[in-house]
Amino acid sequence: MDLYQELILEHSKRPHRMGLREPFDAEVHHVNPTCGDEVTLRVDVEDGTVKDISYDALGCSISVASTSVLATEVTGESVEEALEVFKHYRAMLMSKGKDPGDEEQIGDGVAFSGVSQYPARVKCALLGWSAFTDALAQAGVDISTISSDAAAPTA
Amino acid sequence: MSANPLSEKEVAALRGDFPILARTVRGGKPLVYLDSGATSQKPTAVLDAERDFYTRLNSAPHRGAHALSEEATAAYESARERISAFVGGRPDELVFTKNATESLNLVTHAFLMGGHPAIPGSERFTLDEGDEVLVTEMEHHANLVPWQELCRRTGATLRWFPVTPEGRLDLSDIDTLLTERTKVLALAHVSNVLGTVNPVQMLAERAHQVGALVVLDACQSVPHMPVDAPSLGVDLLAFSGHKMLGPMGIGGLWGRSEVLDALPPFLTGGSMIETVRMEASTYAAPPQRFEAGVPMAAQAVGLAAAVDYLQAIGMDRVHAHEAALTERLLDGLAQRPWVRVLGPTDMVDRSGTVAFDVEGVHAHDVGQILDDAGVAVRVGHHCAWPLHRALRVTASARATFGIYTTPAEVDALLTALDRVPAVFGIETGAR
């Protein structure tokens, strides 16, 4: 089965950059009400750069690994770049298998391309990322560039 | 229970009545449907009955006096009679609702009305500060959240029986939980997660001693075992049609006549009235009082066909069949020490719902591996989040059975489950 790439299993067993750290500008708590998965996520934004993403995640391998990959890929990037990564990652997940993802754009996020074949799991792969964009907004970042596209799924 | 389980031949024959069971999923794999607790599959007799209603009888029941309307009314009321009898009731003791959730909200809403001037005895359905509603920690959200809301709005206090680690109700504090303050006891007959069959008769008796109303969520019992509402001693009993081979969009609320008589209406409008004047109206007797608007007649007719189908097999045999499957699955899981069964691991007061947790692997991931083999189980908290918290698991996988489930399908689940440890790298304790 294509879904469980080695990279996903690795990240779910040993999530990178896990734990809640200070300082931070915003903290959010997101849940997936269908399964009870939870993530608490903090962002630290400094001079338009994502300086730190720290989190505590409880959930399936897809949700934990995707949050781990998020933290790995996006930390140190500018806010604009981070939102671009999110847009490409989300487009891949929503593509029902048509968009395999571009490693140039989303790095290890491409490991989650198989998720797009399973609509019920897209929400798992977006849980941490939705928390991240929500945290950015609460930290005062303008995230309007991502809302013009397809809305988040309501699985 | 001495009834014989269904023979292999009988199950094979009746599977022919369920066209969906012949389909394949995920690249040509035969469907192994073990999610009947969420919704059951429907035999052609049910689909045909619905189609027949629309083909031959379609018109609005209880409206007008033309030939079609009379026939539609007769079909609708015949359905009521058969479905009510199925749970041991008289025709006028069954209210049709959209589903069991609506049935339960119909009851909690009655308490929000604070009594109705046109309905004698309705003052019984009032709650105040100091009053208590008693539920259990194993309730489905449908029999928990409406009571929470009711308590929040009336100032009454919500209390609950906790659950033991073995998945039984912890009744050790019954004397402090069930008291003169208790106005309602609302509980599940069978847990939709644990499969536990609760001691309803005894609890109803205790509740009546303190004058409490007893409301039973029978969604997981009525489709799977003989249920006789009057002898259970409850006052109101909610069930859903789509879990018992019937169509979606219809459920039932059985109620003792004297309870329904005093119950204020829920939805108001056409059909549920006696007289209407511009200033005020009076209301019809039950069950019409609770059926505003054109009813779901075709679904009622479909559900009656489902009841006929189940009765032709016999509910004691349905129960015996599912008990044999449950035992087979529990035995198989017991041989896999890396699996933890939530709920009783023996067959005492236990029904065919088996939820389990693979330690170290999230239920979503377990379900995905099973799904890849064509095995459909439910994953998540199954609308019983507090119960999962109490058992200290985030979520679980749940297999549930129907009359069409075969022992081979139980084995298919176990075989698929054996792939989980390898994929997720967990220790199985195997030598």
Q: In summary, what is this structure?
A:
Chain A is of the alpha+beta class. Helices cover 42% and strands 17% of the residues of chain A.
Write the layout of secondary structure elements.
The complex is a heterodimer of chains A (155) and B (431).
Chain A: H1 6-13, E1 26-32, E2 37-46, E3 49-58, H2 61-74, H3 79-93, H4 103-106, H5 119-138, H6 144-147
Helix pairs in contact in A: 1-2, 2-5, 3-5
Chain B: H1 8-15, E1 24-25, E2 29-30, E3 32-33, H2 44-57, H3 67-86, E4 94-97, H4 100-112, E5 132-136, H5 145-154, E6 157-161, H6 174-177, E7 182-188, H7 200-209, E8 213-217, H8 229-232, E9 236-240, E10 251-255, H9 257-262, E11 273-276, E12 281-283, H10 297-313, H11 315-334, E13 339-342, E14 353-358, H12 363-372, E15 375-376, E16 378-380, H13 385-390, E17 396-400, H14 407-417, H15 420-424
Parallel strand pairs in B: 3-15, 5-6, 5-7, 7-8, 8-9
Antiparallel strand pairs in B: 1-2, 4-10, 9-10, 11-12, 13-14, 14-17, 16-17
